[in-house]
Write a structure and sequence with these properties.
The protein is built from 16 helices and 28 strands. The protein is α+β, with helices and mostly antiparallel strands. The protein folds into 4 domains: 109 residues, Up-down Bundle (Substrate Binding Domain Of Dnak, Chain:A, Domain 2), CATH 1.20.1270; 193 residues, Nucleotidyltransferase, domain 5, CATH 3.30.420.40; 71 residues, ATPase, substrate binding domain, subdomain 4 (Actin, Chain A, domain 4); 107 residues, Substrate Binding Domain Of DNAk, Chain A, domain 1 (Sandwich). β16 and β17 form a beta hairpin. α5 packs across α12 and α14 packs antiparallel against α15. It is elongated, with a radius of gyration of 32 Å. The two termini are 36 Å apart.
Length: 678
């Protein structure tokens, strides 16, 4: 029935607090250059070097950009190599802790006092850790609480922050020694999936080591920077960063444009890495060469076997055959061998698992490449819940990061999967630290041409009728940004509008995170649909959201500014994105049902208004029929099926259309009758 069509209206809501996850690392950086005069040369020189640190699960490195050559360089102090194993040993005599290769020697001989893989514990509570706590050689104190984990060595308790600080202190000392200058400031990298608490813990570890942490940078971002990607503001690139380290595997898809590093997706396995390749070799040898039981029980023999396996793995990265001798308890030599072909067979299932994760990451990033393209029918459907449908750009490069990518089978599998040769031209052990050094150099103000920006991780929008989210700033929008939409009222004479702001990817606000709300008051009473309310979102570079609502006819306005205070962790962001993908279909159904209900309620409101005002023009039978059909619509509304609601609405519309026309004619006749005709 014409004129009874429900308006598209909203019950408006708004924002009070907004936290831009991760943006705290990205304030516009103001650098006051400290300069000193080099008395020998009389030239001005930068007083301080800011170093870049890759604080890895297995290995850590420190790098810097050489002030003259401007080349990023990994620091090799005293010819000990650039790699510092992330292992801390507390000597039994209570002497100062030992860090690095020397500490690693104690892994099997003094496991209780030798801490490795501490990065896995960083920023984690006992509860986060669960069963993994028991898999470590040292004592993780487990009180099953929300508190952060502690590690016990003899009678002392250490937090993962303190232990990481030991590693950072060592890196700092090596840098100071090699560069012959104090090092007080650093950029430290973390995995892209690290949440707020893990990032904060990394910062704290830096501070404890006497370093001012200028920025926490994602490892894949650092790797891309090391490859020179993102340094030219005019280039636009999409890259995959495949990082297979000692105990972890991460795949990240990044889009880089105008200095913005956008993480399109991440995937991986926090318990898959080079150690597993070593273990596969150990198991193979144990079975094939009938190694005595002692190789499984005696720490020295275990150590010997593990080191031989790692040596075999590394050797086979360059050669085809490996042979070595193990010495058992009775000092008998046992010869063990491994060919590259055998090694490949052993590790293929592990490599396949990394490729499966790459496939998921590509799907999440809505990308198709190489071999994926040929698999017809396996492409991901664009999610209707996603508010920023991404184009499907091609993958410009695949970067290899992490020591384990030296394994030829890994290189081959990755290149084949992505349909292009992977890029391994930089040392995969050093690439993250080199990128961190470049970031440090940018922050030091030495590369003013480069601007690194961030994006919003989640969609921002407001609640509309029926509890639906109306997106205003889609996720992955560059910040600063500004966007707005116009709304109207749903009820005659409505003078207030509640504006509630939400963050998230789901269609229903109840599934998203509410940031806050405010009420636009003082709207002059007008029929429903007449007020024009502009709602504007302004998100500044610091991630502070300002929400403004203006009723245009009366110029009534209200404004709220929200400072980022409590935020979502990266994990929560990740979870929200995952939920939106998993629930996309359900969400669409829910949205359609809500829209039908909203339309039905609008129709009932209009019909009731009409019958109340025009009773005199309707017969008793018509009023009864209308009431009966109204009841049918109400009954349908009580259910959860959309179709009966739509059907009942159609019938009510059919039934009442002639009445509306009749009333219209009567009004016209009355108008005509009242007119004076010459
Ligand atoms: P993380 O980032 O986890 O700290 P790394 O990137 O330093 O770890 O990788 C360490 C892993 O790389 C170890 O398992 C080591 O055995 C492996 N690795 C180092 N060099 C080679 C090589 N030439 N061939 C195969 N694996 C290697
Ligand atoms: Mg690493």
């Amino acid at each position: 029935m014409a004129g009874f069509n429900p308006y598209f209206c909203i019950a408006l809501f708004g924002a009070i607090h907004f936290h831009f996850s991760g943006c705290r690392q990205w304030p516009p950086f103001v650098y006051m250059a400290t300069v000193a005069i080099n008395l020998a040369t009389g030239s001005l020189q930068q007083e301080e070097i800011i170093v870049g640190i890759d604080l890895g699960t297995t290995n850590s490195l420190v790098a810097y950009v050489h002030p003259e050559s401007h080349q990023p360089t990994a620091i090799n102090d005293l010819g000990r190599g650039t790699i510092v194993p992330s292992v801390v040993h507390f000597p039994a005599d209570g002497a100062d802790p030992i860090v690095g290769a020397e500490a690693r020697e104690y892994l099997l001989t003094d496991p209780q006092r030798t801490i490795y893989s501490v990065k896995r514990l960083l920023g984690k509570s006992y509860r986060d850790l669960g069963q993994h706590a028991t898999q470590l050689g040292y004592k993780v104190i487990d009180d099953n609480s929300e508190g952060l984990v502690k590690i016990r060595v003899d009678d002392r308790f250490y937090s993962p922050i303190e232990l990481s600080a030991n590693i950072l202190r060592e890196l700092r000392a090596r840098a100071e020694h090699a560069l012959k200058t104090p090092v007080n400031r650093a950029v430290i990298t973390v995995p892209a999936y690290f949440n707020d608490s893990q990032r904060q813990a990394t910062r704290d570890a830096g501070r404890l080591a006497g370093l001012e942490v200028l920025r926490i940078v994602n490892e894949p971002t650092a790797a891309a920077l090391a490859y020179g990607i993102g340094l030219d503001p005019d280039e636009e690139k999409t890259v995959a960063v495949y990082d297979l380290g000692g105990g972890t595997f991460d795949i990240s898809i990044l889009r880089i444009q105008q200095g913005i590093f956008e993480v399109l997706s991440t995937n991986g396995d926090t318990y898959l890495g080079g150690d597993d390749l070593d273990r596969a070799v150990v198991d193979h040898w144990t079975a094939t060469f009938g190694l005595p039981e002692a190789f499984r029980t005696n720490p020295h023999l275990q150590q010997q076997l593990r080191l031989a396996a790692e040596m075999a793995k590394k050797y086979l990265s360059q050669h085809d055959d490996f042979t070595t001798h193990l010495t058992d308890e009775a000092s008998q030599n046992i010869t063990v061998t491994l060919t590259r072909a055998q090694f490949n067979d052993l590790i293929r299932p592990l490599v396949d698992r990394t490729i499966a994760a790459c496939r998921l990451a590509l799907a999440d990033a809505k990308l198709e490449v190489g071999s994926e393209k040929r698999e017809a029918g396996h492409t991901t459907e664009p999610s209707s819940a996603s508010h920023s449908p991404l184009p499907a750009p091609k993958l410009d490069a695949v970067l290899l990061v992490g020591g384990s990518t030296r394994v030829p089978l890994v290189y081959d599998a990755v290149s084949e999967f992505f349909g292009q040769p992977a890029n391994n031209s930089l040392n995969p052990d050093e690439v993250v630290a080199l990128g961190a050094a470049i970031q440090a150099d940018i922050l030091a103000g030495n590369r003013r041409d480069v601007l690194l920006l961030d994006v919003t991780p989640l969609t921002l929008g407001i609640e509309t009728l029926g509890g639906l989210l109306d997106p205003i700033i889609p996720r992955n929008s560059k910040i600063p940004t500004k966007a707005g939409r116009q709304y109207t009222t749903s009820v005659d004479g409505q003078v207030n509008l509640k504006i509630a702001v939400y963050q998230g990817e789901r269609d229903l606000v109840s599934q998203n995170r509410k940031l806050g709300e405010f009420t636009l008051t003082g709207i002059p009473a007008m029929p429903a649909g007449l007020p024009k309310v502009d709602v504007n979102f302004l998100l500044n570079a610091d991630g502070i959201l300002k929400v403004e609502a203006i009723e245009l006819r009366s110029n009534t306005r209200q404004q709220v500014e929200i400072k980022p205070q409590y935020g979502l962790t990266d994990d929560q962001v990740e979870q929200m994105l995952m939920d939106s993908l998993v629930n996309a279909k359900d969400d669409v159904a829910a949205r359609l049902l809500i829209e039908a209900r909203t339309a039905a309620e609008q129709l009932l409101y209009q019909v009731n208004n009409f019958t109340r005002k025009n009773r005199q023009h309707l017969t008793e039978a018509e009023l009864t029929a209308t009431a009966a059909q109204v009841a049918t619509v109400q009954a349908a509304l009580a259910g959860t099926d959309r179709d009966p609601i739509l059907k009942a609405m159609d019938e009510l519309d059919e039934l009442t259309r002639p009445y509306a026309e009749r009333v219209m004619n009567i009004s016209i006749q009355q108008a005509m009758a009242g007119k004076k005709i010459d």
